[in-house]
Amino acid sequence: MVGNKDPLQHCIDLAYRYLSYRPRSEAEIRQRLRLRSFNGRIVEKAIAKLKQQNLIDDVAFAQFWRDNRLSFKPKSKRLIMKELRDKKIAPEVIEQVTQDIDDEANAYKLGFSRMHALSHLDYSDFQQRLSRYLSYRGFSYEVVKHAITLLWQEREHR
Prior knowledge:
The chain is an all-alpha fold. It has 10 helices and no strands. It folds into 3 domains: 46 residues, Arc Repressor Mutant, subunit A, CATH 1.10.10; 41 residues; 54 residues, Arc Repressor Mutant, subunit A (Orthogonal Bundle).
């Protein structure tokens, strides 16, 4: 027993605190609680209670993660899928929440947001810098090439 607190309640309280920063996947919470030296039975009871309270929902978490990535740190569908796999989200949930991601549109939008910083460059430098920028965010060669072509044409017609 930890102080006067029931071990299960202590485990749940730690999970609440961990969840207070941002939503978490079930695997993230399980891992965090095990790192805090709670035995498996108590961790599973805490997880069950958190699920009952709708505080753990991997589908909602995956949607949150996708929306967050597309809004604040745009990345490709492939990279978002990898991040969700790393967070131990089930493959069918990953497929469900990422099926509507449009890499072409996202690469264009992300590239367009960088246009002001690249407007003074010639085509070679523009292409090289934007290509690195978009590739770093996980976009494929074909998607990057298409976005660069569209953005350069748009720049030329201004």
